[in-house]
Amino acid sequence: MAFNYQTFRTRALTAIVFVVVMMGGLLWNQWSFLVLFSIIHMGCWLEYKTLIAKIDPRYTDISSAHLGGAILAGTGFICWMTDETFVIGNTQLNILGGWVLLISLAGLLLIKLIKWKMPDWKIIGYTVGGLLYISLSWGLLLDLYGKISSLVLSGGWLLPMLIIATIWINDTMAYIVGSFIGKTPFSSISPKKTWEGTIGGGILAILAVTLTAVYWLEVDTVQMIVITVTATVMGTLGDLFESKLKRMAGVKDSGNFMPGHGGFLDRFDSLLLATPYVWLALFLIR
After folding, report:
1. Part of which pathway (predicted)?
2. Which residues pair with 87 in a beta bridge?
């Protein structure tokens, strides 16, 4: 894969804007973190619906209530996973989120019952798949921000930031290394990826984030190795999974909100798959 300066320049400029917005949402406070990923959650869902509709045209016909109910249920789950620092008046947000989740799921079921038709389990499966692929991941990221983060590290933004930094460095270094020395195709699903770029980017990401966290932030070495290795491996697989969806849908990008990077799913595909596995790994070792 030859190095393309114009492509790299476009990607770099839009990435700078993206990083500024992301850093603001990540670091300002817990509410900016929640709002940021609630917006990302909605963007991912809209693109997911479009992709699935291209794969199976029947999904085009789902009602606005169906799609809105799924997004609302996912948002409820995200809020349900927040910790005690998220309070509205005298009410914990996780309590409100739990009710929103239950009511949304009940509403989706009621819509199907009112139609008095045999349920199309494949269509239902696509929606359940979206909840697992998108909503579950962002909900667990909120949990990493709060409960698990406070137990494993120092709480707050640090743990999500370490995961995101690992994925960003891995993606960038894999592109650069692959551009200069990549020769061996990594997968037919994503023909531009090479083994050289994938391995080189992964090693550089793991070393950079682990050494920074251990020697500068004084994070436990074993925990950091678990975080960075899991994020790197599953992030790469997450990118391949989304590429497979796009290939099945016959599109190049999931959307176009970021020039040079595509849509929400294109930008967050690695994080979507890495987050639940990092959550599970930390849950098991904490």
Report:
1. Phospholipid metabolism; CDP-diacylglycerol biosynthesis; CDP-diacylglycerol from sn-glycerol 3-phosphate: step 3/3; Lipid metabolism
2. 92
